[in-house]
Write a structure and sequence with these properties.
alpha/beta; globular
Length: 392
């Protein structure tokens, strides 16, 4: 039987990295007041360096951050080679594929003087949490931003794969208007399996059940009343009874390679697999083998286990030989399979989500500034929020 402990409960996740809570209206008003006070005060503004800045987000980040902090935007990804660019800054803001390993954390703290890391993402699997605790670096994240945008992208992957839209589009561009090989299936009456029923998983379940007339099965250690489908007692039941399987899990030691040869063998032959969560959930070599053997019918992924080497970069002007210097053999195989659709970690990429990310990042840095001020003034009267918002 599938091991139930592969999933972490919500409480266990909070133990690893305590989440930013949903604040009441009073707390939101208090935050707004603190923001105005900070902006109008004569205190020295914090210096913040932003790594992995992309053109699509810079204007939104500038609008949120520049009036409160001295901000420097950098295009390079944070690595051991670029970490010294953070020297002299109080806080550092980084993205999902930046390197926050032990060596980088130590250098950030001991050589650069950075005291706080603001993640512009929900996932923290690239963060060495123990090293952050050891060197006294505070870590904040954006636990949630427009989750339905990711559910909608997962639905887009499903529809594109089912109706062979990539193949059709490519054919039409070359002047081929034939229909052979483009047959899909009706979504009505098919079964969606949702593994991980947080807001994104529940959002996709709602779209499929209410919008397409599908049956929905789900598995999660903590069942939610809002889930529109039927919960199963184990993952195997979901896998063997679903036409489409969508993963919505965090990546940790329990969920790494959650889908491998054994799980693929238990699926319906020809099932579709969707992953918009974390690349490491898939043993991608086993998945490719399943695709080649016809055990899996199609694969749609917005994440990739080694995506930091490839995603958010432009290789279009390189030759095949030059591309392979950067790509790995696995991505080359995925790109060659017609039943595979890869998107470059763009499921979150909506204007609404970018605005929420920037707003939450600003609030996280303001909270850090308030705590610094309290520490300097030895002020113990302010409400202690460290046990719900910080790693250490």
């Amino acid at each position: 039987k599938m091991r139930a402990h592969k999933l972490l409960s919500s409480q266990q996740q909070r133990t690893l990295l305590r989440l930013k809570p949903q604040r009441s209206e009073n707390k939101r008003r208090s935050r707004a007041s603190n923001e105005r006070c900070y902006a109008s005060s004569n205190k020295k503004k914090l210096k913040v360096v932003v790594f992995s800045t992309s053109d699509y987000e810079r204007e939104i980040l500038e609008k949120q951050l520049n009036s409160h902090f001295h901000v420097t935007f950098l295009k390079p990804r944070l690595t051991i080679e670029t970490v010294d660019l953070a020297h002299g800054y109080d806080a550092m803001c980084c993205f999902v594929n930046d390197d926050l390993s032990t060596d980088v954390i130590e250098r950030l703290s001991e050589k650069c003087g950075v005291k706080m890391i603001a993640l512009r993402c929900a996932g923290f699997d690239k963060v060495d949490v123990e090293s952050c605790k050891k060197f006294g670096v505070l870590v904040y994240r954006v636990p949630m931003y427009d989750p339905l945008s990711i559910a909608e992208h997962a639905m887009a992957l499903i529809l594109a794969l089912n109706r062979k839209l990539m193949i059709s589009h490519s054919r039409v561009k070359s002047g081929n208007f034939t229909l052979d090989g483009l047959v899909g299936f009706s979504m009505r009456g098919k079964t969606l399996g949702v593994v991980g029923t947080g807001k994104i998983g529940r959002g996709l379940a709602n779209i499929c059940a209410n919008g397409f007339g599908m049956s929905v099965l789900g598995y999660d250690l903590k069942q939610k009343r809002e889930f529109v489908g039927q919960y199963c007692d184990d993952v195997e039941t979901v896998l063997k009874n679903s036409d489409i399987i969508s993963l919505h899990l965090p990546l940790n030691e329990h969920t790494k390679h959650f889908i491998a040869e054994k799980e693929i063998d238990s699926m319906k032959r020809g099932a579709m697999l969707i992953n918009t969560s974390r690349g490491g959930l898939l043993n991608i070599k086993d998945v490719i083998c399943g695709l080649r053997l016809g055990k899996l019918g199609s694969l749609g992924i917005d994440v990739y286990e080694s995506e930091e080497k490839i995603f958010f970069k432009d290789f279009s002007n390189l030759t095949v030989e030059e591309k392979m210097l950067y790509w790995d053999d696995t991505m080359a195989q995925l790109s060659s399979l017609p039943q595979v659709l890869v998107t470059p970690h763009q499921a979150f990429l909506t204007h609404e989500a970018l605005t929420e990310i920037a707003e939450c990042t600003k609030q996280n840095i303001l909270e850090f500034a308030e705590e610094l001020d309290d520490a300097e003034n030895d002020d113990a009267s302010r409400e202690d929020v460290s046990n719900t918002t910080r790693v250490c």
